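Support request, please re-run this one:
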Amino acid sequence: MPIPAQATETVKHDMHWEYAVPIAAIHVLSCLAIVPWCFSWFGVIAAALGTIVFGTFGINLGYHRLLSHRSLSVPPWFERTLATLAVCSLEDTPSRWVANHRLHHCHSDDDPDPHSPRDGVAWSHMGWLFRRAPHRRSLDFLDKYARDILIDPYYRALEQHPTAVLWIYIAHAIVFGIFGLLLGRLISGDWAAGVQLAVSLIVWGVFLRTVLVWHITWSVNSLTHLFGYRTYSTGEDSRNNWLVAMLAMGEGWHNNHHHDPVSASTQHKWWEFDITYYVILLLKSLGIASNVRQPRHIRQKR
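Re-run finished. Output below.
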């Protein structure tokens, strides 16, 4: 299994090009959205819906509440579907995402925390991704924090073939392009219009949407440890931030989450709306989700 051997320390001054290049490239490509020829309302819709599908379903529900915290159970086929949607956001392999997140909870805002705002808001937002940390790529690290993830052959295969994440991302961009090409041709009867719509869907529905999902996710790491109110004394700097909660479909109620990480819901007050949890309840009503963990204050009343 080609995973780097355990390293002794983080290489704090060595650029992690494997992350830096794709992140920079996608940001540059997303700027094509300001080009009038790349604009279409279908593209805008694709960006908005894509943020929900790949962000809320993929990252929030799949990587975070399901894989990282096991706040609910779903059939294996559905779990892998959610994980694949998350992969299409280019936020790393399932095992690495989960391992880093669990490390964050174990050492939140202390030295081992990979993205503590105490090291600077820019560092916690995205800077930590640009510095090599070989020990967090090692088999020992993944075995310690994500052993349950690597047991699954699909997730293990993604770890054995790291470029698979990039190829999945490229494949889903091609799907967007083909759909736009055929839709544009169907609507206008012109292949040139189809090409334009294909480009629009890729620019807006893939590149710009990816950047939006990234910064929403990263804001949970940075802003919700800096700005907002605290309902619970949790031993670190987590806060409830209504703006991030709105953008991240409930993930911004971060102090609530650190108080009770295993809960499927971050909604501890009636007005702390958690859209991701409502999605979980919908899946439960459809018979897809089970063993949904309620917040601690509700569990303790039973």
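Residues 17-227 form one domain. Residues 1-11 have pLDDT under 50 and may be disordered.
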